[in-house]
Every structure is written in C-alpha cells, then in structure tokens.
C-alpha cells in the first residue's frame, strides 16, 4: 500500500451533544475516549486570566468525575469516576500537584463526607493519599462505615508551604442539648479540623468545636440554625457548627468558617477563640457595609502588620433561609485596631443574580480578576479588576448538578499513560478516519499517524495539528492498522497502541 498523506483535519466536529432522557444538560462524546464531559455554555465579554477551569460534578451529574476544561469548551483532563470534590492545583515541595477529595458525600441536610485527599504529580500519578485512619470516629447513623478507609471530610484540603494540609472532619458524638431545648443525652455532628503532614499523615494539630462550647455556645447558633427535631438519635445528629473552610494565619493560628453560625473564627494555637466575626451581628467587630450568612471558603487574601483582607463566598442562602438576599463574593477589610469590618470588593452580576443555598468558592486570580464558583448553582463567573463579569460558564441545570468549588489554574500535564486512538473505514470516500486523544496531555502540538495493512512496520501516513481534546484526521485509502504519536514540548513517550481499523464508520 502506498504512503498517503492526511487529506483533511476536521476540527470542531469531535463534540457531539446528546440530551439524556431525563432532560439533563448536554455532554460531549469522543470516538477515542469514553469520557463525556459537560458541554459548557460559555459567555465571554472580555479577557480572562490564564489557565484552565477546574470543577467537580455533584448531584445528578452525567459522569461523576472532576474536570479540567478550557475556556473553549475543550476537555483537558477528566479523572477516573468517583464522588470527587475540590479539584485544584497546589504546591508540594515547590512543585505543582493536583489534589481532590475522594470518598462519599452525605447529601443535605447533612452535607459532609468521609474519604481521603489524593495528591497527583504532573504525570497524573497518585503520589500521596492524605487520610485519617484511627481517630475513633462515628458516622451518621444511616451510614455503614465498616468499609471506610479514612474519615476526612469534603470541605477542606488546603496545602500549606510546610507540606502540610488543612482538613476537616465530622464526628457523630453525644452532647447535652438541653440548654437549647434539645435532649440531655443528645447527638451532634461535631466539627473538627486538622493540620496533617501530607507525606506521613501525622496529625500536627486537632481542634473540635465541641471542646469549645464555652466560647462558641449552642445558644448563639439558634437564630441561624434552630435545633428543631435534631439531636434525638445518631441518624439525625444536630450538625450545628458545619465547618467549611480552614486557613492559616502567619502566626500559626487558624481562620475557620462555620456555615450555621454565619461566622468566621480565629482559633489560637492553644485552641481558644481569639475573635469571632459574625456576618449579621458582627461578633467582636462592628460591620459597616458588609453582612453575610451561610458563607463558604474564607481566605486570607492579605495579611500585613496593619492590614487584613479576608474573602468569602457569601451564600446568603441555605436550607434554612433562601430567596431574600442574593449570593456574592466579598473581600473585606478587617481592621483589628478599630475592630471594624468594611467592604474592599463586592462581586456580583446584577444581570444574573444567584441564590446559592450550599457550597461555593471565591478565588483571587492574577490581574485582580476573581473567579467565583456558585456551588449549588452550576455556574462560574470571572470578574475583572473593575468588578465587571467577563465570563459566565454554565455546566448544568439549576437544581440538577452542582460543583462544591471551582478554580482557574495554569497547568502543564504530561501523562504517563499512552494516547488513545480509534480508526474506521469510510468506504464511500475511500478514506480511513483516525481519532486520537490523550487525557491530560496539555503540550501536544501535532499528531503523527502511522498506518498500513499489516500490523508490523507501519509507515507514516500523515501529520495532523492537534485541534482539541480529540483530533480527527482523514487518511487516503482503506487502512487495516493504525498507530498515533503525540509530539510537543517535553513529550518523550506518547505512542498509542496499534489499533485495528473498524470496517465501517
Ligand atoms: C491512594 O488511594 C487510591 C484509592 O484507593 C489508590 O488507587 C492509590 O494507589 C493510592 N495512592 C497511594 C500513593 O497510596
Ligand atoms: C471510641 O468511641 C466509642 C464510642 O463510639 C467508645 O465506646 C470507645 O471507648 C472509644 N475508643 C477509644 C479508644 O477512644
Ligand atoms: C468521635 O465520637 C466518639 C463517640 O461517638 C468518641 O468516642 C470519639 O472520641 C470522637 N472522636 C474524636 C476525634 O473526637
Ligand atoms: C431520628 O430522629 C428523627 C428526627 O426526630 C426521626 O425522624 C427519625 O425517625 C429518628 N430515627 C431513628 C432511627 O430513630
Ligand atoms: C432559592 O430562592 C431562589 C430565588 O427565589 C429560587 O430561584 C431558588 O429555586 C431557591 N432555591 C431553593 C433550593 O429553594
Ligand atoms: C483508494 O485509495 C487508495 C490510496 O489512495 C488507492 O490506492 C485506491 O486505488 C483507491 N481505491 C478506490 C476504489 O478508489
């Protein structure tokens, strides 16, 4: 058979939109890969910060995975299937790594989980699992925990520059709830947080809300999360604190966020509460132009001698209260001398107001851009330095899918797996259509295609520039065997298996 050349590279046709019977969101399909990422609805009105979009899919997702996708709706990397959350790039030993929670999530009205945090290197190899094995936990009564390998919760997996990770845990335990009208021998879901060494899993710090009821009283949470019928048994523990983020101050103390107290707390190294910033009453502060409720993702954005800027995702909505105030991203000045909190930046899109009842995240990006992931509402928005929305991405129907957190990060991935290829004969055009992809390979610039009628010694039949997650090329003649090779910066492997060409397309 003669060596023929690529006659055409068909771009833009690799993404097929399908609508499921249950009328969920359309997804993309490929010939060379079984991944089916959502078809992103992208509205862009200005430049965005560099990097890819990172998100998970929860609730009624088509495929339970985490996704790395481009602003052009192209899949970059999709994880193996699982109940995975909080997918992002962090630094370990000064090198970028990927991290996510892998376990099970217990749906609202509980809203926490049990699992491990996985750490992957730039070749997508699993290099560390952060886990909590023997801290004598009890799960919510409806959950069979006999097979659990670790008790770490969904909510936090932030890495520090010391190669440690800040983590949360939810332990069902007994508590006296009589002071707030509950049972004397009641049940709570205690909120714990940890600092754990990523490489050894040694627990360096442990804190429990239950141990500090003297400073964080059950009475204070009643206006925002009344006890009602909670706490009578271990299947309905009173999850009154609901920790949802942990961050470290320079002096080694911690900033934590409690959903139901609508509060941020500064926790000293001895575990005591240094201060409380309550979103409605102020707590130890006076609020001037800022208020928040049921917030997530409290982050220290700037910390100097005389300045503290904290960002939060202000849900303003929850399973207790919804539909009055819209959700926004808040960056606030916390003046420690005057004990006063004022707005620094308030971010929302007045043309598309969102009422997010759970989850969510706010990420500061280069150029004073901000990415907001709306949690229970399957949308992200990027805002520019003026606070104007420059991009909206939707990946599902409201109320059907959600993403715990969303991020934007630059990323270079060189997988240690082989690329995938699929080929079929299009007899009517006397061509062989070749489809190739390589999950997670960010650096591929072009594909070399080899083909022939015997399996060994396949000659080159053409070169195709990469067009997206899957590149399709059409080669003259009816081939029987095809192999593809990826080329680009840093790629030293990148050869697919030799695949048998399907007789019909
Ligand atoms: C981490 O756990 C996953 C899931 O059980 C497993 O596949 C992987 O090999 C583990 N990685 C390491 C470094 O132990
Ligand atoms: C672990 O917790 C159970 C209650 O769930 C208790 O009976 C047991 O004594 C605890 N064990 C340890 C080692 O603390
Ligand atoms: C978790 O709760 C059990 C009681 O159900 C208790 O024995 C155990 O000490 C608690 N673990 C932690 C880490 O607080
Ligand atoms: C636990 O308490 C809740 C709320 O009071 C109740 O609906 C539920 O039936 C109880 N479950 C068990 C197993 O007793
Ligand atoms: C919350 O309120 C908004 C605005 O009224 C509404 O669109 C949304 O469906 C509500 N969400 C839930 C979960 O009730
Ligand atoms: C199909 O294409 C091949 C390669 O270009 C050529 O050798 C062959 O004659 C063609 N067959 C037909 C039926 O056109």
What does it look like?
The chain has 505 residues and is mostly beta strands. It has 2 domains: 41-409, Neuraminidase, CATH 2.120.10; 420-500, Sandwich (Immunoglobulin-like), CATH 2.60.40. It has one helix spanning 218-221, and strands at 6-10, 41-44, 52-56, 58-59, 66-69, 75-78, 83-92, 95-106, 112-120, 126-130, 157-159, 164-175, 186-197, 203-208, 243-248, 254-258, 263-267, 273-278, 282-283, 286-287, 296-304, 307-314, 328-335, 340-347, 361-364, 370-373, 379-383, 389-394, 401-402, 406-409, 420-426, 431-437, 444-452, 460-465, 470-476, 481-488, 499-500. The strands form 9 sheets. A 5-stranded antiparallel sheet has the order 2-28-27-26-25, with no helix packed on it. A hairpin with a 3-residue loop joins β18 (273-278) and β19. The longest helix is centred in the middle third of the chain and has 4 residues, at 218-221. 47% of the residues are buried. Mean pLDDT is 94; it is low at 1-22.
Structural class: mainly beta
**Unreliable spans:** 1-22
Ions, cofactors and other bound molecules? 2-acetamido-2-deoxy-beta-D-glucopyranose
CATH architecture of the largest domain: 6 Propeller
Number of domains: 2
Question: What would the keywords be for this entry?
Answer:
single chain, 505 residues, mainly beta, Neuraminidase, Immunoglobulin-like, five-stranded antiparallel β-sheet, 1 helix, 37 strands, 1% helix, binds 2-acetamido-2-deoxy-beta-D-glucopyranose, Arylsulfate_ST, ASST-like, ASST-domain-containing protein
